[in-house]
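Handout, section B. The chain below has 443 residues.
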Amino acid sequence: MSVISEENVRGGSVFKDISADDEDWQPTEIESLCMNCYQNGTTRLLLTKIPFFKEIIVSSFSCANCSWSNTEIQSAGRIQEQGVCYTLKVRTKQDLNREVVKADCATTRIPELDFEIPPFTQKGSLSTIEGLLDRAVAGLKQDQAVRRAADPEVADKIDEFIQRLKKLKEVENEFTLVIEDPSGNSFVENPVAPRKDEALTMSLFKRTIQQDKQLGIRADDDSDEEPAANDLDTMRNEVLVFNTNCPECNAPASTNMKLVQIPHFKEVIIMATNCDSCGHRTNEVKSGGATEELGTKITLNITDPSDMSRDLLKSETCSVLIPELEFELGMAALGGKFTTVEGLLKDIKDLIVAKNPFVCGDSGTTDRVQKLNEFGEKIDKVIAGEINVHIVLDDPAGNSYLQNVYAPDPDPEMVIEKYSRSFEQNEELGLNDMKTEGYQQEN
């Protein structure tokens, strides 16, 4: 039996990078009860790291008496600041091969069938779209023999629904798969990265108090009322500090928050996290004002390496386009950032190349890895001034900013356009259903 040593725990090496070459790092074996035959079987636990999930616990049970086995994945990392929702339009059989990381707290829906898998009813898994459908079919088939004896009508309806689920794998008609994860730890593959995936959309959302309680990050006896907002005058003059965990090493860290007035722009909230343990630093920006009446599209023609030092504010609602590289970054990716043009390009490279969970290890095919590495090399050449490109910041909320180095005079290399938002953009921002007049008169 393999045992996790006390030295490994003290040294912070309990979670090792997953590797087929490390013969010394063996799973821990525990004798446990088989829930199929109620004889003793063996559970193997492996604490390791894989891309995106970072620290995970892989557990595998096998029973030598009845040959029953079970495997599951549990996230051992931190819960993200926001939840994530992936919406995939499955149009071809190739879409069924997309890899999916689904946390146990995620909700899976297929609106066309009015079908939903509630959170915490399945264990976390690393699978494909086809694998998710097969798992749903297997779950519905369970206990069908008992249902058929007790209520044949219900059993027949479930059999009919199982056939409808199986038929989805033929992809005769387009259907939608929605994975909504309040922990932010689920993921759906983009097979055409770094280009935009027309079939896949991702959005971030703020968890409700009930979801916080389900995830165990808020006590059940806490009040359901939202905390009152801090006084703005106090926030303008002070740096607020609160405790958090490092997103890289999960060690205790502190986050600083302050209201900042950007010249020739507006007031924003900057949140910065510094980790003393691993040196990780990150910042996030929230708009301090309301949504503007018009959207803003900023186009910068990069013609000189000095353009890399321009200050840049990318809000959470801003998408980034680089036409020369056929690249588009959706509004939800990277979150809000106050950085420079060079910092934004480096963050894009890290997101697409370094932190892509389907590039590392066995998940990365040669063609895909080569294509993404070539994209990373082009980004490096743009930063070095070897390639001239246009960077387009398209923010329908109008809360993004790019420094004009010629201010207050016009910048010859930058074009700022104001435009009216479309219905779809207002829908994404939640403005279509927002009522700001007469709401106090309703019961």
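Note. Residues 65 and 324 are 62 Å apart (CA to CA). Compare this with the example in section A.
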